[in-house]
Write a structure and sequence with these properties.
With 360 residues, the chain is of the alpha/beta class. It is built from 13 helices and twelve strands. It folds into two domains: 19-37 and 270-357, Aspartate Aminotransferase, domain 1; 46-267, Aspartate Aminotransferase, domain 2, CATH 3.40.640.10. 39% of the residues lie in helices and 15% in strands. It has a seven-stranded mixed beta sheet with strand order 2-8-7-6-5-3-4, sandwiched between helices. The chain has a three-stranded antiparallel beta sheet with strand order 9-12-11, covered by helices on one side. It has a two-stranded parallel ribbon with strand order 1-10. The relative contact order is 0.17. The structure holds 4'-deoxy-4'-aminopyridoxal-5'-phosphate.
Length: 360
């Protein structure tokens, strides 16, 4: 017997969440944070105004029903409000869905490498992770993921576009996968970067969940809408699944300020989507620049690109630091770099050119 309180055994197994490093300010050079897949544009003035207005109410708890935001999302997506569940970022939804659907030792299947919060959420719930390696081109190996499903599997996470490797699954691939998944397994399609997808046969998430009782989408205001600091994510799925997420949610999690910012952003969606379009153009420009420099990345469909660098990953991250761009290294594997300000993107392409020729 130990004399102090002991957390559950699973707690000591939880891997750390390594947040993207902020840049160290330098007198000689503007530095850029390309390590967290954030949107480089600040919230629109109207969004700031709405959020500031809501600050006046902060002596009160927020609207627990998140009414205005549920109504705005319902109108945008054309789905009933009871098909939605809001949370403090879509990362909270990942935790909640493991909590709601998994008993200890139940299995959660996901691709690897993928979003680093998955192992954390699964381990914290004392569930088991079943990680299926991504293909050499960074895409999900959906055949292998389907084959990994057992009677103990409760959830499969499909991250599309996949963070950090970049590619997205097609509707045909997802349909073929869903046809193989037994009905007791919840398939979560993590669409954190969905607004950046430009491909033939993209997934239509709403149509997909509408046709399946076991499919749930997760989305976020953090990326395309540029509200990462406000912490708002949402799930879309059949009412019983969305209801389960709401049941385990923290009361009053999404603040009044965050609700106001999200609603104001939806009211200004065309302007925000123009910014997304500009980032997509920049992504294309970077991919072309990298190819000209002699480096091919897996097809990026989010607001980031992936460099497979193996043992040279930390060296690359260091070289990036030196030119004032902070990237996100995964030691021994590769580096993920967010598409951001034009100048930052230029520096990335130049750096990779030098890296390829060995001059850096
Ligand atoms: N899913 C994926 C694939 C992500 O990359 C992220 C953020 N890095 C999230 C979910 C969570 O985003 P948030 O909690 O800010 O909504």
């Amino acid at each position: 017997m130990t004399s102090s309180p002991q957390p559950r055994a699973a707690v000591s197994q939880i891997p750390p969440y390594v947040a993207g490093k902020p840049p160290v300010p330098r007198p000689d050079l503007t530095t850029y944070k390309l390590s967290s897949n954030e949107n480089p544009y600040p919230p629109l003035p109207g969004v700031v105004e709405a959020a500031c207005g809501a600050v006046q109410t902060m002596n009160r708890y927020p609207d627990m029903g998140n009414t205005a935001l549920y109504d705005a999302l319902s109108a945008k997506l054309g789905v009933p409000t009871d098909h939605l569940a809001l949370a403090t970022g879509s990362v909270a939804l990942i935790y909640q869905l493991v909590q709601a659907f998994c008993d200890p030792d139940d299995e959660v299947v996901f691709a690897w490498r993928s979003f680093e919060a998955y192992p954390i959420a699964v381990t914290a719930a004392a569930a088991r992770m079943v990680r299926v390696p991504v293909l050499a081109d960074g895409r999900h190996d959906l055949d292998a993921m389907a084959a990994a499903i057992t009677e103990r599997t409760k959830v499969v996470l499909v991250c599309t576009p996949n963070n950090p490797t970049g590619p997205a699954v097609t509707q045909a691939e997802l349909d073929a996968f869903l046809a193989k998944v037994p009905p007791h397994v919840l398939v979560v399609v993590d669409e954190a970067y969905v607004e950046f997808v430009r491909m033939t046969d993209p997934v239509d998430g709403v149509a997909t969940y509408s046709a399946h009782d076991n499919v749930l989408l997760t989305r976020t205001f953090s990326k395309a809408y540029g509200l990462a600091g406000f912490r708002v994510g949402y799930a879309v799925g059949p009412a019983p699944l969305a209801g389960a997420l709401r049941a385990v949610s923290l009361p009053f999690g999404v603040s009044a300020v965050a609700q106001a910012a999200a609603v104001a952003s939806l009211e200004r969606e065309p302007e925000l989507l123009e910014r997304v379009e500009a980032l997509v153009k920049e992504r294309d420009r970077v991919v072309t620049g990298l190819a000209e420099a002699g480096w091919t990345v897996p097809e990026p469909q989010g607001n980031f690109v992936w460099f497979e660098l193996g043992e040279r990953t930390l060296e690359f991250a260091q070289a990036a630091d030196e030119v004032g761009i902070v990237v996100r290294p995964f030691a021994g594997e590769g580096a993920r770099v967010t598409i951001a300000e034009d100048e930052a993107n230029d520096r990335l392409v130049t750096l990779v050119g030098e890296w390829v020729t060995g001059s850096r």
